[in-house]
Amino acid sequence: MTEIHLPWSVLAATLLFILFAAKLVIKKKKNVGGETPSVPEKMPPGSRGWPLIGHSLSWYNSVAGPHPPTFVHQQALKYGKIFSCSLFGKWAVVSSDPGFNRFIMQNEGKLFKSSYPKSFRDLVGKNGVITVQGEQQRKLHSIASNMMRLEKLKFHFLKDIQMIMIQTLGNFEDNHVILLQDVCRKVAINLMVNQLLGMSDESEVNKMAELFSDFVDGCLSIPINFPGFAFHTAMKVDDPVAFFPLITPSLTFRGARETIISKINTTIETRRSTAKEGEGVLGRLMEEESLGDNAVADFIINLLFAGNETTAKTMLFAVYFLTHSPRAMKQLLDEHYSIRSRPIKGEEELLTWQDYKAMPFTQCVIDETLRLGGIAIWLMREAKEDVKYQDYVIPKGCFVVPFLSAVHLDENIYKGALSFNPWRWMEPENQEKRNWRSSPEYSPFGGGARFCPGAELARLQIALFLHYFVTTYRVETNEGRQDVIFSICPFS
C-alpha cells in the first residue's frame, strides 16, 4: 500500500490557523464559566470539544498530517458523515457526504458563499476570481472559462506548453542531482507566466518565479506584517518608518505582491503603447471594457496562484506515485513510446491534439493522482441564510466545510482507497464516478459556480509534462531512502 504524503495540506492547515489566531485575539468566549454548550437544536449531531479551542487542534493535526481526513473520519464514525464541531471559536458543519458536498457547491452564491481569511484576501486581491462574490464572481469566472475553453487549448496552448516543457526539461545534465519539486515548480511558473503575461525571457521568468515564491509563502503563513515574517515579505509595507524610525522617510519598500502588480501594470502599458493588446490571455483581459487595470492585475495574480501551485504539486505527486508503482510506470512508458514512434508530420517533433487524446492510461494516472493527492482537500464556505438539508437546519453565518478528500479516500466508495491504482478508472463501475464535472464522489476541481475554469488546461499540462519527463529521463529510486534519481535516457 502506498503511503500518502500531502505537504500541500499545509495550505489548509495554515489558513485554519490564521482564522483560529484571529478569533482568539478579537473574540471573547460567549459561554462564561467554561461550560460546554450542546449542539444547537436541529444542527447535525456533534460536540463542542475543549473549552475555547473546541476541536481546532485536532483538526490542525489532522489536515497537516499524512492523512488529512483522519479527524473527519473519526467524527463521522461517531456522528455520521455530516456532523457539527467547534472550529476557531464558532460552530462548524463538516461533511464527508458526497451528496451534501455537491449540494453545497451547487448552491454557491445562493445559500452559501466562499469564506477566506482577510489576510488571504488582501494578498490575492479583492478583485480576483477566487475572492469576489455574487455577479462579479460569475462574470470573472465566465471570462476565465472562455479563455481556457477547448478550442483555445487546441490552437493556442498546445504548442506553447510543449515548447516550454522542452526548454525547461532539456537543461539538466546527465547524472546531475535535481530536486523534483523545484523542477515541477519551474515548469509550472514558466507555463503560467508565459501563457498569462507572454513572458519568455529566462531572466524575467526567473525573477517572477522568485517573487511568486515569496508571494505564495505569504499566502500560506500566519498574517504577521512585521520584518522577518513571510506575510510581511509578501505584502507591501505602506509606512516603512513605522517599522524602522531611523530610515529615510522617502524610502519605499515593495513586497512580492506589489512588485508583481507593478510588473503586470508595466506589461499592460507596454502592450498599449505597442498596439499589442489582443495577444495572449492578458490581451484578452485588456479588451474587457468593464475591467480596470487593478482588476486585471488581481485577476492575473489569482490565476497565477491557482494554476501554478496546484499544477506543480500534481506533477510532483504523479511522478512520486509512479516511482512506487513499477507496473504503472511501465504501462505509462509503453503508451508514450508508442506515441513517439508514430511518423512525425512537419519540422518540429511536437505532439498533436490527436496524440494527446491517445493517452488513455495517462488520463487514468492523472485521475488517480488527483484522487489520492488532490490539492482541493476541503473548501471553506459560510451559510448566507438558515439552510435546511434533510432533517437539519444550518444557521446563517455557520462555517460549512465540504471535505472532498474524505470522500476521495473513503473505503466504502473506493476499494483500496489508500492505494495508488490507476486501473480502477478503467473499471465499468467507476465510469460514472469518473465524470469530475458532475460526480459527487470525485470532485478534484470543486464544483458549481466555483468549478475550476482551468481544469482542462491543468490536465493538458500534466499529461504533456509526464510525456516529456518519462521519455527524457530514466527514473530510479534510491533504495532505503526517499530519493528518486533521474538520468538522461540514451534514446532521447
Task: Describe the protein in words.
The chain is an alpha+beta fold. The protein is built from 19 helices and 9 strands. It is globular, with a radius of gyration of 23 Å. The chain starts with 8 loop residues before the first helix and ends with a strand. The model is unreliable at 1-36, 237-253 and 485-492 (pLDDT under 50).
**Strand residue percentage:** 5-15%
Q: Give the helix/strand class.
A: alpha+beta
Distance between the amino and carboxyl termini? 32 Å
Overall, the morphology is globular
Overall average residue pLDDT: 80
Number of distinct beta strands: 9
Spans where pLDDT lies below 50 across 5 or more residues: 1-36, 237-253, 485-492
How big is the Rg?
Answer: 23 Å
* Total helical elements: 19
**Helices and strands, in N-to-C order?**
HHHEEHEHHHHHHHHHHHHHEEEEHHEE
- The main sheet orders its strands as 1-2-7-4-3
Proportion in helices? 40-55%
The largest pleated sheet is described as: 5 strands, mixed
Short description:
By secondary structure, this protein is an alpha+beta fold. Helices cover 49% and strands 8% of the residues.
Keywords:
49% helix, five-stranded mixed beta sheet, alpha+beta, 19 helices, disordered N terminus, globular, 492 residues, 8% strand, 9 strands, two-stranded antiparallel ribbon
Please describe the topology of this protein.
Layout: H1 9-26, H2 56-63, H3 70-79, E1 82-87, E2 90-95, H4 98-106, E3 112-114, H5 118-124, H6 134-147, H7 150-169, H8 180-197, H9 202-219, H10 230-234, H11 240-243, H12 256-273, H13 280-286, H14 293-323, H15 326-340, H16 353-357, H17 360-373, E4 381-383, E5 387-389, E6 392-394, E7 399-402, H18 404-408, H19 455-470, E8 473-477, E9 484-488
Parallel strand pairs: 2-7
Antiparallel strand pairs: 1-2, 3-4, 4-7, 5-6, 8-9
Helix pairs in contact: 1-2, 7-8, 7-19, 8-9, 8-14, 9-12, 12-14, 14-17, 14-19, 15-17
